[in-house]
Amino acid sequence: MPTEAIDPPGVAWLRVSPKYVTVRLVGWALGNLAAVAVLSLPLVLVLNGAWTWPPLWFAVVLPAAVFLLALWRLLLIPRQVRSIGYAEREDDLLIRRGIFFQRTLVVPYGRMQYVDIGAGPVERGLGLCTLKLHTASAGTSAEIPGLPAGEGARLREQLSARGEARLAGL
User: What's the CA angle centered on 22, arms 17 and 28, to 5 degrees?
Assistant: First the structure.
């Protein structure tokens, strides 16, 4: 259900690559595997008789609850990736994300100080990158993850040129 505050009228959103789901899934798998393994350690120690506390029910419920929460997050990842979008307008760049808590960030070209592109090992393997925008405000920065490398390079050059043109006019 789009709202006017989140989805300004007349904006054609560009979406990030669907391959970004894989990047998010790899991060999800590594993080949750470690969490469930660590939280299952008390269960193993209780079952082996090395520990008498926590009670068996607690030692079972804790990793099971974390596992169920991890499965819930797994179901959300594809939808979260589909919610990421960006739009280039005449004076600013819009970045949108979020399912439950939606957010639209407006970055005026004249406020951009520099544009940075990065790619981790999984992103590089899939031909993706993350574009980061740094603004004049120390607390404000924006990023667009999951861009195809070619689109990221094009966007970097385009935003840099627009930012320089706006700064020259100040």
Answer: 130
User: Per-residue pLDDT tens for 131-156?
Assistant: 999 887 777 779 999 999 999 999 99
* CA distances (Å), origin 54, targets 39, 47, 66: 12, 11, 17
Beta bridge pairs of residue 114: 134
Structure confidence at residue 7 (pLDDT)? 81
Query: What phi and psi values does residue 160 have, to the nearest 5 degrees?
Result: -60, -45
Q: List strands edge to edge, sheet with 128-135.
A: 112-118, 128-135, 141-148
pTM, two decimal places: 0.87
20-47 helix and 56-83 helix, angle to the nearest 10 degrees: 180
CA distances from 3 to 8, 34, 45, 75, 78 (A): 8, 39, 52, 24, 22
Q: Which amino acid would we find at residue 22?
A: T
